[in-house]
Amino acid sequence: MSGQSQAGFTPTGTIATPADRRRVVFATVVGTTVEWYDFFIYATAVGLVFGQLFFEPLGTNSAIVAFATVGVSFLFRPLGAFLAGHYGDKFGRKAVLMWTLILMGAATALIGVLPTYDAIGVAAPILLVLLRILQGISAGGEWGGAVLMAVEHAPKAKRGIFGASPQIGVPLGLLLASGVMALMTAIAPGDQFLQWGWRIPFLLSVVLILVGYYVRRKVEESPVFIELAERKEKASMPIVQLFRKHLLLVIVAALVFAGNNAVGYMTTGGYIQGYATNPEGPIGLERGPVLWAVTGSAVTWLITTLIAGWLSDRIGRRTTYIIGWVMQLVGVFALFPLVNTGDVGLLFAGLAILTIGLGFTYGPQAALYTELFPASIRFSGVSISYAIGAIAGGAFAPTIATAIVQATGSTQAVTWYLAGMTLLGLIATLLLRDRSGIPLGPDHEEEQSVSPIRGLAKV
């Protein structure tokens, strides 16, 4: 039966039609876009207003503390990943995705009505951090479920391009978040933006969540999970099995993502936005043009992510990644020399060059991760590897970059930090065998359990 599943059949023997697959891809893109819009709108606001509105009493340290709240949420991603992985491997991918969407939307909307420090004092930043933690729990559970819904529904030869559908939710979420914020700077300029303009993008989340919930309800459960359920082969304690048998694989997979995530969070974490618009900094650009430049770079990121997913189906995940790491390294060294010119056009060019490498080290990730782990513990493996990689990579990248610049007065050390993370991702990739096209169904657990780490045998 699993052979049928790999060929495009559901476990009951009916053909998974192109219309079914299009519905899965559409729902995945919409759902992940909404999730990441919510997650990134916070980071964008941190770079623009939260330091002033919620952490102003800290003076010169307000920016560092504000960016640290971006990172705090990452510390709770593993909790979301543990919960989602456990329940996703036991009860299905679809139910978990519905709950993560609701949790993220509720937290985001509540931030939109949160009083500032001037109104309620220290309770304001405390409540802000608590809501950010809920966003982190949701993000920790969202990605793994979205990835498995896309890749486990895909034909064997198209897992890369199908897996790119949840991946493009990140640049789409960034595009939407930056675009809406840029629009609000025009509608509510100056002090109006600080007073109420920044709140509208958060409140818009309510509408987006309703749309995402409606679309996801129409999607069928993953065929691999249905087959596991019908055969009663679901793991009773998937997380325990994961760490007992595949701990080293989780670490290596996490480092692959960390190399991409640290660099990506220069924009998704709000650092470039804050650095370029800081009136007391070396550049001092207006908010609107910088946000539009970030929005434009999200488009190039989206395109290269899709290209990389498609290419990985032809030349393999590992080779595509290696090409991506080289291009990402070029982008890292080009970024700050272009940003520091103070020219918005060159700032966009720096971000666009960077996103080429980011796309190539992100597009194949969904298919790569899905093919690394056995079916019965796959949700746990994918989610926890991703969450750990996010902590090691992007969690505190904006905070680290801010502290480095404050300590040295230069962005040169930030460039070397990002280059180091890129090389770490390359090394982790080189440790892995390419498993493109490996059967995903439960009949092939023995084959899937052979470690993809070079030099290791069956675990």
UniProtKB/TrEMBL annotation:
Keywords: Cell membrane, Membrane, Transmembrane, Transmembrane helix, Transport. Gene3D superfamilies: MFS general substrate transporter like domains (1.20.1250.20). Its main location: membrane. Residues 24-437 form the Major facilitator superfamily (MFS) profile domain. It is found in: Cell membrane. The keyword Membrane applies. It is a multi-pass membrane protein. The chain crosses the membrane at residues 61-84, 96-114, 126-151, 172-190, 196-215, 247-272, 292-312, 319-338, 344-363, 384-408, 414-432. This is MFS family permease.
